[in-house]
Design a protein that fits this description.
two-stranded antiparallel ribbon; globular; Alg10; glycosyltransferase; EC 2.4.1.256
Length: 510
């Protein structure tokens, strides 16, 4: 029932807003001027045609062919189209993301209920609906961009891995990479999450076996009885079902405080040692991910770059300030979780418990943040010249307001990252938080252009594991997202403007 409710709720706004967007903006806009003609070439069977300005692989176009093929019989029967290429209109191609947005919301619901089986169904539905309103995801639901398809493929891959369907997960990973190259990082993240889960589950089994043997020895039971009890115990563990298994494997409870306080280094050591003992099982389970990685490496060698086209404008750069921007934007878009008196006090108390280490890490983070914005803050030519993007105004009106402004913002960046880690530390192993940070950095740091839509996947993965049960906070986020979505869509549709040096209508966009 929950999945149907989520799909229905998301469809309530996807359908009418899509109609409105296609009525007011019927022609391709911004990056659509590259993507839509390319997809239409594929609809015509011209698979060798390629626009050199397109930077991403053709995964979205193949998904569009499936979507068009599903619609063609009905349109042909109703005499709305006489040939397959006629169906590939701008509106139909945009509707691909509408369908994927509904599917994405269902995947979010499935992941939430999988990670948190004890969560009330109404809250899970609320959480999934609110995340579907996330502004960067919501806005591009109505345009023909790769963002919605990319997020959907990554979440599907992650859900399959959570359910221990590793081959299927790797296949979905290949689809995700075919949509956007940087998803190779998220595929590796998913594989690492799976390894962490398996190794920790095995370590827990070994600890239970050792504890049971010790207990039996102290009570004088025989070795035969011990082995019977161990086997029975392990059989019971396997028969508990996915809900109970995942509650222990992926979602920390208060009873696991010993493991949590043991520290990051202890977790890394435990995972390395356990991985060595079960190396063959891990190799068999995760070898499909390795083959996808090999294929990606072969692509890099063949292509000579991560991006396909416009390589000069998307050259890899050491843009370390990007992860600072991500933390602050993500915290702002989840403000009811990060910027409350209770949360700030809780974060301060966690530092105060180990003052020396806490303040040393805070000082180190401040120094790293200052160095990042001073030496590794990149002003891409597109950022400086294109006033259709909100980042253009944020850069000029805030960051460049005064020479000191970029340094004054560093404490907010640092607070945001510590807040993210603090929320994750309540529900996840520290090594999971580290892997999430490294994956986020690997995706964002090489990107020279500040694009908030690049933040969508790491934001979703954080929110899915933040573990807050406060329905009020989620409702406040829903209100915040709705206000932002109404504002950005109103600006896009009803506040067009013109450039003196170029013909055509220009519109504001993320």
């Amino acid at each position: 029932m929950g999945k149907i409710a989520v799909a229905a709720i998301v469809s309530i706004w996807v359908i009418p807003v899509s109609i409105l967007v296609n009525r007011i903006v019927p022609d391709p806009y911004m990056d659509e001027i590259f993507h839509i003609p390319q997809a239409q070439q594929y609809c015509n069977g011209n698979f060798r045609s390629w626009d050199p300005m397109i930077t991403t692989p053709p995964g979205l176009y193949y998904l569009s062919l499936v979507h068009v093929a599903a619609l063609f019989p009905g349109k042909y029967f109703l005499q709305l189209a006489s040939s397959f290429p006629e169906v590939c209109s701008t509106a139909v191609l945009r509707s691909v993301n509408g369908v994927l947005a509904v599917l994405c919301s269902i995947l979010v619901y499935e992941i939430i209920t999988h990670l948190r089986p004890a969560l009330d169904d109404r809250k899970a539905t609320l959480f999934a609906a609110v995340l579907a309103l996330y502004p960067l995801h919501w806005f591009f639901t109505f345009l023909y961009y790769t963002d919605v398809a990319s997020l959907t493929a990554v979440l599907a891959m992650y859900l399959a891995c959570l359910k221990k369907k590793y081959l299927f997960s790797a296949l979905l990973g290949a689809v995700a990479v075919l949509i956007r190259q940087t998803n190779i990082i998220w595929m590796l993240f998913v594989a690492c999450s799976g390894v962490i889960d398996i190794t920790m589950a095995h370590q827990r089994d070994y600890m239970e076996v050792d504890n049971l043997k010790t207990s039996n020895k102290s009570t004088g039971l025989s070795t035969f009885n011990t082995n019977v009890n161990v086997s029975s115990n392990l059989r019971k563990r396997k028969s508990r079902g996915n809900a109970e298994a995942n509650k222990h494997s992926f979602y920390w409870t208060n009873t696991s405080s010993t493991a949590r306080t043991s520290g990051l280094l202890h977790e890394i050591q435990a995972i390395v040692l356990t991985s060595w003992h079960i190396k063959w099982m891990l190799l068999v389970s995760f070898s499909p991910f390795f083959f996808v990685l090999l294929a990606f490496v072969a692509f890099l060698i063949w292509n000579g770059s991560v991006v396909l086209g416009a390589k000069e404008a998307h050259a890899v750069s050491p843009h370390f300030a990007q992860i600072m921007y991500f933390s602050f934007i993500s915290a702002l878009l989840a403000a009811p979780l990060h910027f409350t008196r209770g949360h700030a006090l809780d974060l301060f108390q966690s530092f105060w418990k180990n003052r020396l280490l806490g303040f040393f890490l805070g000082f180190l983070a401040l120094i790293a943040g200052l160095l990042s914005v001073h030496f590794f803050s990149i002003a891409h030519p597109y950022l400086l010249a294109d006033n259709r993007h909100y980042t253009f105004y944020l850069w000029r009106k805030i960051i460049k307001l005064h020479w000191s402004m970029k340094y004054l913002l560093v404490p907010f960046y640092v607070y945001s990252w510590f807040s993210i880690f603090h929320l994750l530390d309540k529900t996840q192993r520290r090594i999971w938080g580290l892997v999430h940070f490294l994956a986020t950095s690997a995706v964002l740091v090489p990107a020279p252009l500040i694009e908030f839509r690049y933040y969508t996947i790491p934001f979703y993965l954080f929110m899915l594991h933040a573990g807050t049960n406060d329905g009020r906070s989620w409702l406040l986020m829903g209100v915040l997202y709705t206000v932002l979505n109404v504002f950005t869509m109103r600006m896009f549709l009803f506040r067009p403007f013109h450039w003196d040096h170029e013909a055509g209508v220009q519109r504001f966009i993320w």
